[in-house]
Design brief:
By secondary structure, this protein is α/β, with parallel strands linked by helices. The protein folds into two domains: 202 residues, Glycogen Phosphorylase B (Rossmann fold, 3-Layer(aba) Sandwich); 138 residues, 3-Layer(aba) Sandwich (Rossmann fold). The strands form two sheets. Strands 3-2-1-4-5-6-7 form a seven-stranded parallel β-sheet, sandwiched between helices. Helix 1 runs parallel beside helix 2. The protein is globular and about 60 Å long.
């Protein structure tokens, strides 16, 4: 049985949900053991993958910094982010040594990262093949935010990547010493029965628009109960479990519910920041998509440019939500796009087979 160590970014649940999609696909197609390395979303990941029992090992470790946002805002706190990156890089050698020691007993065949730089340092230390999977790297995301010395240190880690699977919207250098491949959107598969149950529960008369507004598990906007958007009587709104709101027209997803892709598929419209995980679920299920623009974030802008080029979204600013007319942002028909999770799994399996023969 092959063993994969899978490092998942600490920032929110988007990296976790798409990694879960790929892990499920791999576990269902090959005999493999996966060591999942993460801290922030580790309990969510456990709940999502419990069916695979001891074929999955959970290792709690902080893998990267992500973004640091201003209080009750979607905007980056550049000062705090620079300091967080400085401390991360300072501690990196010790963390790499500890990770290498931990993984030594697992006889790892491949290290996958989405998309922590730590993983590539560990792979080099253990002399194990590495694969990055992402629509961005933190080096690119931080390009116009942190100082050049810190930025260069991130590039050093990503330069050690053996293979890179770049995802839809990626504007990255040709990372991958051995190979670089491009893929489209992929996500967790939905349950059509569950999607129908969600619609029946939230809109039993089938006469309203279902609008999903996920903001992100690491974003705190404060109490948004008085937000004018919620007062549209022809809509039912669904929000993430972390959002502070108490409104009769708003349904909060229970914190114990892991398969949120079913809500995305059930919705008529998703209004979201440019988080790749939510976007991939919306695009894959043909759900209308409206993106909240954050001009200062290159990762967002690259994803938005891709979506606009392919006519997959509309774009608004945060302040536009006050008087947003929902109907104007809903497409007349759902046009589902290919979920490429099977293609990603095939690519991973091919790397395992190639490296086994070298």
């Amino acid at each position: 049985m092959k063993t994969i160590a899978y490092y998942i970014s600490e920032y929110g649940y988007g990296h976790a949900t798409r990694s879960i999609a790929l892990i499920r696909e791999l576990m269902n197609h090959i005999e493999v053991r996966i060591v999942i390395c993460n801290s922030f979303a580790i309990d969510f990941i456990k709940d999502s993958l419990h069916e695979f029992g001891d074929r999955i090992v959970y290792h709690r470790v902080s893998t990267d910094v992500g973004y640091v946002l201003k209080e009750q805002s979607l905007d980056i706190d550049s000062t705090a982010l620079n300091e967080a990156c400085r401390q991360y890089l300072k501690s990196l050698p010790d963390v790499v040594a500890a990770e290498a020691a931990f993984l030594q007993d697992y006889d790892v065949d491949l290290i996958i990262s989405d998309v922590s730089p730590l993983a590539f340092e560990v792979a080099e230390r253990l002399q194990v093949t590495s694969l990055g999977i992402s629509n961005f790297t933190w080096h690119t995301a931080y390009k116009n935010i942190i100082n050049q010395e810190l930025l260069a240190a991130f590039a050093v880690s990503y330069d050690k990547m053996d293979y890179f699977f770049s995802l839809a919207g990626s504007v990255e250098p040709k990372w991958g010493v051995k190979d670089n491949q491009s893929f489209g959107f992929f996500s967790r598969r939905v349950s059509k029965t569950e999607v129908r149950n969600i619609r029946d529960f939230l809109d039993p008369k089938d006469d309203k628009q279902l609008v999903f507004l996920p903001i992100g598990m690491k974003i705190d906007l404060g109490d948004i109960t008085k937000f004018p958007l919620w007062d549209q009587k022809n809509c039912v709104f669904v929000v993430s479990s972390n959002m502070t709101i108490d409104h009769p027209n708003v349904h909060k997803i229970p914190s114990t519910y892991t398969e949120v892709q079913n809500y995305v598929a059930a919705a008529d419209l998703v209004i979201s920041k440019a988080g790749w995980g939510t976007i991939s679920e919306a695009v894959g299920n043909g759900t209308s998509l409206t993106i909240i623009n954050r001009p200062g974030m290159d990762e967002d802008q690259n994803t938005i440019a891709f979506l606009k080029d392919h006519r997959l979204c509309s774009l608004i600013n945060w302040e536009d939500l006050d008087d947003l007319t929902i109907e104007e942002h809903i497409k007349k028909e759902k046009l589902e796009h290919l979920n490429e999770v099977g293609l990603l799994a095939k690519g991973v399996i091919e790397i395992l087979e190639t490296e086994a023969n070298t």
